[in-house]
Amino acid sequence: MIPANFEYVRVDTVEGALEALAQHGDEAKLIAGGHSLLPLMKFRLAAPAYLVDINRLEGLKYVKEEDGYLRIGALTRHCDVEKNHLIKENAGLLANATHHVGDPQVRHRGTIGGAIAHGDPASDIPSALLALRAIVVVSGPNGIREIPIDSFFTGFLETDLGDDELLTEIKIPSMPDAKWSFQKFNRRAQDWAIVGASILLNGESSGVSLVNMHSVPFRAKAVEEAIAGGANAEEAADLAAEDTEPTADINASIEYRKHLAKVLVRRGLEEAGL
């Protein structure tokens, strides 16, 4: 439970962070809250030679509305996301999902950028952002890239974020009239979800995504297509496990996770008013 030796580097600007990444390449890892990275380091599943502390990048801590989008700085703490009035009014699903992350101590240290840069399919935040059809903004030596959230997660704990890039912002379409629900089934309040579901209904469009049901954060396209075709909550939810690839562990079998996905999606759709 002791990490391998590493060098500690602290930066004060985005440019400084990019310079450190360019200098050390894939031997460097960025750290803010550390709730995803440090456990991997303790088990030596990750062993960066350089740990680059970006907590002093104050310019990446913000929430604002601009041109029909919510713009959230990557270093915005979970506790600020869950309480921010702009997010509550225009992306209530994200605020509610964030409230279910860990416990107050975790939410006061963890950041929204770290929650998605890690690419963990068991994390609540990526699920909500998938349903909301967010855009991930990254900065690197070649400038700024905007990546649709559906293209960001590329494999288990893998993303489209380059070794020399920094996730700087998340953009979410403002949807003040949307109906939503976040469902999470776990053993204890602070535990990772055994299964979770993010549901968004916004006029004729919908967003449905699942937690811990695939090697990547998973969009339930079959459910979304069923809703578009006029299915009711029960009919649409019956397709929730389609194309999923859950794993079995001490908490649940594959069959149980698939059953939970259907139950939670139905509950979420009904709560959202379908």
Structure in words:
This protein has 274 residues and is α+β, with helices and mostly antiparallel strands. The protein has three domains: 7-53, Uridine Diphospho-n-acetylenolpyruvylglucosamine Reductase, domain 2; 60-173, Uridine Diphospho-n-acetylenolpyruvylglucosamine Reductase, domain 3; 179-271, CO dehydrogenase flavoprotein, C-terminal domain (Enolase-like, domain 1), CATH 3.30.390.50. Helices cover 34% and strands 26% of the residues. The strands form four sheets. The chain has a five-stranded antiparallel sheet. The protein has a four-stranded antiparallel sheet with strand order 11-12-13-14, with helices on both faces. The chain has a three-stranded parallel sheet with strand order 1-3-2, with helices on one face. Strand 13 and strand 14 (218-219) form a beta hairpin. Helix 5 packs antiparallel against helix 8. The longest helix has 18 residues, at 254-271. It is globular. The model has no long low-confidence stretch (mean pLDDT 95).
What are the main properties of this structure?
274 residues, alpha+beta, Uridine Diphospho-n-acetylenolpyruvylglucosamine Reductase, domain 2, Uridine Diphospho-n-acetylenolpyruvylglucosamine Reductase, domain 3, Enolase-like, domain 1, 3 domains, 5-stranded antiparallel β-sheet, 4-stranded antiparallel β-sheet, 26% strand, globular
